[in-house]
């Protein structure tokens, strides 16, 4: 389980990789959360939003690790273009449905995520993705 999860916008992988040791700086637009597995979450969100499968994402090496190790240290990974598009294009109602579905999915594995918190996470992430896309940036996630 992650302790710190920060989604942030960056112009490219090189810029995003600078966040590895200390997280995204104050100049980066970012969102902070905690206590959920963001790599698993983005896979589930993408599957729920686009109808894809976990197997397809694993074959495509998504989420794509930009830098770091995902076992004992910090890691930075990129949000896939497909998920970014789906989040940016989703209506508020669709995002609420996604949050509810994700909450139920996590509950099946014994992980309790409050529906309001899930709604805030996916809603705020969708807003960050939309803002980043307007600036020609991508969205990444730093996990510590």
Topology (SSEs and partners):
Elements (H helix, E strand, L loop, with lengths): L4 E6 L2 H5 L12 E4 L4 H13 L3 H6 L4 E5 L6 E4 L2 H9 L2 H17 L6 H20 L3 E6 L1
Antiparallel strand pairs: 1-2, 1-5, 3-4, 4-5
Helix pairs in contact: 2-4, 2-5, 4-6, 5-6
Protein name: DUF1877 family protein
Could you describe the 3D structure shown?
By secondary structure, this protein is of the alpha+beta class. It has one domain. Helix content is 49%, strand content 17%. The protein is built from six helices and five strands. Strands 2-1-5-4-3 form a five-stranded antiparallel beta sheet. A hairpin with a 6-residue loop joins strand 3 and strand 4 (75-78). Helix 2 crosses helix 4, helix 2 packs across helix 5 (92-108) and helix 5 (92-108) packs across helix 6. The longest helix is centred in the last third of the chain and has 20 residues, at 115-134.
């Amino acid at each position: 389980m992650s302790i710190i999860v920060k989604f942030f916008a960056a112009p490219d992988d090189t810029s995003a990789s600078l966040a590895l040791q200390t997280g995204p700086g104050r100049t980066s637009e970012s969102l902070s959360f905690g206590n959920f597995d963001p790599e698993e979450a983005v896979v589930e969100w993408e599957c729920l939003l686009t109808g894809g499968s976990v197997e397809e994402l694993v074959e495509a090496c998504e989420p794509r690790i930009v830098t770091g190790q995902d076992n004992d240290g910090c890691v930075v990974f990129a949000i896939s273009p497909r998920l970014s598009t789906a989040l940016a294009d989703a209506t508020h109602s669709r995002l609420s449905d996604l949050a509810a579905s994700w909450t139920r999915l996590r509950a099946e594995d014994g992980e309790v995520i409050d529906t309001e918190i899930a709604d805030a996470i996916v809603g705020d992430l969708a807003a960050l993705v939309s803002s980043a896309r307007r600036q020609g940036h991508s969205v990444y996630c730093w996990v510590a």
